[in-house]
Specification:
Strand order of the largest sheet of chain B: 1-2
Main location (chain A): membrane
Membrane topology (chain A): Multi-pass membrane protein
Number of helices of chain A: 5
Largest sheet of chain A: none
CATH topology of the largest domain in chain A: Helix Hairpins
Oligomer: heterodimer
Number of domains of chain A: 2
Shape of chain B: globular
Structural class of chain B: mainly alpha
Strand content of chain A: under 5%
Distance between the termini of chain A: 59 Å
Largest interface: A-B, 48 and 53 residues
Order of helices and strands of chain B: HHHEEHHHHHHHHHHHHHHHHHHHH
Number of helices of chain B: 23
Number of strands of chain A: 0
CATH class of the largest domain in chain A: Mainly Alpha
Organism (chain A): Patulibacter brassicae
Keywords (chain A): Cell membrane, Membrane, Transmembrane, Transmembrane helix
Helix content of chain B: over 70%
Number of strands of chain B: 2
Strand content of chain B: under 5%
Distance between the termini of chain B: 35 Å
Protein name (chain A): Na(+)/H(+) antiporter subunit C
């Protein structure tokens, strides 16, 4: 493919992908969804740009016209498939954001279980001047995180057997 | 390559899709018909896979041009030795998991949900996996990935409970990002090489400028590395897999990451043989092994520990791919087969532990060796297999990879050899720790009886959330299909030891075919062979 893609397309790809990536880094799932959609569209434009020079509609006619003046039809076919797939993914993300909102009242992506356990452990290991409240909070946090991972703390209030270590 | 044999190639993709459609049409009625359709379809796919394996081994790669459109323009499905082997193993494993899920569904009283959603989606997942293994062009590989990923999103968030939505979010967002990376890479490959057919690309990429080829290789490998969970891109896996139902986690752990590994093998051998990226891959595989297994050692929950060993052992396969010599590839192929089976078995057994004791946390469960000896045996055998204790296939696979590393002989390869031995030992430590706590130690909490205590108030939902948002029915009577399927998987894992000779020779032939590239290209389109012949002759 001749590399004569227009500068405009390149700029559009850059802007779409950059804003898509920024949104993907957000905590809110709705913004992540918009980011994924933007990134997907940016990549579709990239494929268009990769098709080279635009030309006639790619229809095979019998009147002996030059086939080399046609646009490359393959990338257009690929983009059609990619658009459908991105659409399905967007719908799924939207459904997950809605379900998350139903369950938690927000659609923010939470830290994973280990992150929360480590944070809780660190908070409870801090010096005494943080007071009992912070420790209790950390305990509650650890219990919540541990519960989600299917772990169980045996007795209320007693430091878990594994929590105390390192 | 007669007309009749090439007709077999699309069947592993078409049959499960067709069956899924029929099942969706039937809806949640006629459970018996559903079972016959599902089991029959996957058994048929297994049969087709074995036929393809024999054909590919005897007559070379089997090619089907979809709709009669010839490559490179048309879509080709190619079953060479590697693809056929992957189809056989994946269909055997999915068949066992399907049978297992029937037992679990019946025991949890979730009859209507699995029939309506789980089983059609599961079949679509199988179709996607087959499509990825058979894809003869990059875009079809992308479509295969998407089919299996979208069905995996549905399976992972099945029931929509709080913990599944939380872990599913990470999984879905990371997977979408990897898909978009792959799509971008496809665009770049098309722009640079003007084709997406793998056989066609094999010749075209050789003629590209080295820098451009490097960009394409890194772009493709990054996308696959996310799917395969190679170290810096692996953090999503141990967080998202353990919350799903046991059969779902089992099939994810066994198959989905291996599809990524397969894609890495395919691109590294067919498109980019002998490139400078291989050293980077070696370092990454070492980090994957060591970081993964250190994570596993720190875990107390059986499922989470297994997820970390899964990440760790991906490193072994990447090690073989990165070495790129024939022995290394053969070892990687053997290890993929071994690891699909063993990892799936271990997650199925974890499901049985959960069923028996109500939890998979080794802080909570104890003394199962006495109360559930069969589960203990079914956990012990694959666990030792995973750790690489001599008679088992895990040992043989590791030996092959270590041999390949020694043959390679560079300093980096020796570091990798040492790293893989250490990882093997640490795996033994991790599974041994869980084994002694869950099976040997006296139980910390009394095992739940019919009306006995199940631990602290309010924890039932939390534990139950790991199976469909309901409290798990713990019982001493394990459904016979669950036990039977797990036993079958354990036996399959042991059979690799018995059949190690033929399997290793087959892996070696597959590796030879991968290194050669000619057979693949020749089978897809004889006219493409000429440019590939000058493979490795340097760039113009």
């Amino acid at each position: 493919m001749s590399s004569s893609a227009s500068v405009v397309l390149a700029v559009v790809v850059g802007v779409l992908c950059a804003s898509g990536v920024v949104l993907l880094l957000e905590r809110s799932l709705t913004r992540v969804m918009i980011g994924a959609a933007l990134l997907g569209n940016g990549l579709n434009v990239l494929i268009i740009a990769m098709a080279g020079k635009s030309g006639r509609a790619p229809l095979l006619g019998g009147d002996g016209r030059d086939e080399r003046a046609m646009s490359d039809p393959l990338p257009q076919v690929m983009i059609l498939t990619a658009i459908v797939i991105t659409f399905a993914l967007t719908a799924f993300l939207l459904a997950m954001a809605y379900r998350s909102w139903q369950l938690h009242g927000h659609d923010e992506v939470q830290d994973d279980v280990d992150d929360r356990l480590v944070a809780a452990r660190r908070a409870s290991a801090e010096p005494q001047d943080t007071g009992a409240d912070a420790e209790a909070e950390a305990e509650a946090e650890a219990a919540a995180a541990a519960g989600e991972s299917g772990e169980l703390r045996l007795v209320d209030g007693e430091p878990g057997p594994e929590r105390g270590r390192s | 390559m007669s007309w009749s044999t090439s007709l077999l190639v699309p069947l592993p993709v078409v049959l499960p899709l067709l069956a899924a459609g029929i099942k969706l049409t039937i809806g949640p009625r006629l459970p018996y018909v559903h079972r016959v359709i599902s089991v029959g379809t996957l058994a048929l796919v297994l049969g087709v896979g074995i036929a393809l394996l024999v054909l590919a081994d005897q007559d070379g790669p089997q090619v089907a041009a979809i709709g009669g459109w010839q490559p490179p323009l048309g879509i080709a499905l190619v079953a060479d030795r590697l693809s056929a082997l992957m189809i056989v193993v994946s269909s055997a494993v999915t068949l066992c998991v399907l049978v297992y899920s029937y037992g679990q569904g019946a025991a949890d009283g979730e009859e209507s949900l699995p029939l309506a959603v789980f089983h059609p989606t599961f079949l679509v997942l199988c179709a996607g996996v087959s499509n990825a293994f058979l894809a003869g062009d990059l875009f079809n590989l992308y479509v295969g990935f998407e089919i299996l990923l979208v069905s995996s999103y549905v399976l992972l968030t099945l029931g929509g409970t709080s913990s599944r939505i939380r872990s599913g979010t990470t999984y879905v967002v990371v997977s979408i990002l990897s898909s978009l990376l792959f799509l971008g890479a496809i665009g770049l490959v098309y722009g640079a090489a003007g084709s997406l057919n793998l056989a066609d690309l094999a010749g075209r990429i050789d003629r590209l400028d080295g820098g451009i080829a490097l960009v394409l290789e890194v772009a493709l490998l990054s996308a696959f590395a996310i799917k395969a969970a190679v170290f810096p891109l692996s953090a999503w896996l141990p967080d998202s897999y353990p919350t799903a139902p046991a059969p779902v986690t089992a099939v994810f752990a066994g198959l989905l990451t291996k599809v990524g590994v397969y894609a890495m093998i395919r691109t590294e051998t067919l498109l980019f043989p002998d490139t400078s990226v291989e050293d980077v891959l070696l370092v990454l595989s070492l980090l994957t092994m060591v970081v993964g297994i250190l994570g596993a050692v720190a875990q107390t929950d059986v499922k989470r520990m297994l997820s970390f060993t899964l990440v760790s052992h991906i490193g072994y396969m990447v090690f073989g791919v990165a070495l790129g010599n024939r022995l290394g590839l053969a070892g990687a192929v053997f290890y993929v087969v071994h690891h699909i089976t063993v990892q799936t078995t271990l997650f199925l057994t974890a499901g049985m532990i959960e069923r028996r004791a109500g939890s998979t946390s080794s802080e909570r469960v104890g003394g199962l060796a006495r109360t559930a000896p069969l589960v203990a045996v079914l956990f012990f055998l694959p666990a030792m297999n995973l750790a690489g204790i001599p008679p088992f296939s895990g040992f043989l696979g590791k030996v092959a990879l270590i041999q390949a590393g020694v043959v390679d002989g560079t300093a980096l390869a020796w570091v990798l050899v040492a790293g893989s031995v250490v990882t093997s030992l640490l795996t033994l430590y991790a599974v041994g720790k869980v084994w002694s706590r869950v099976f040997w130690r006296a139980p910390r909490v009394a095992l739940p009886t019919a009306d006995g205590p199940r631990g602290r108030e309010g924890q039932d939902e939390v534990v139950g959330a790991t199976i469909g948002g309901r409290t798990i029915t713990t019982s001493t009577a394990m459904p016979v299909t669950m036990t039977g399927a797990t036993v079958a998987m354990v036996v399959l894992g042991l059979a690799y030891t018995a059949a190690a000779g033929p399997l290793m020779r087959y892996s070696d032939r597959a590796a030879g075919e991968l290194r050669d590239r000619q057979a693949y290209v020749q089978a897809v389109d004889p006219e493409m062979v000429r440019p590939v012949e000058r493979a490795g002759a340097g760039n113009p």
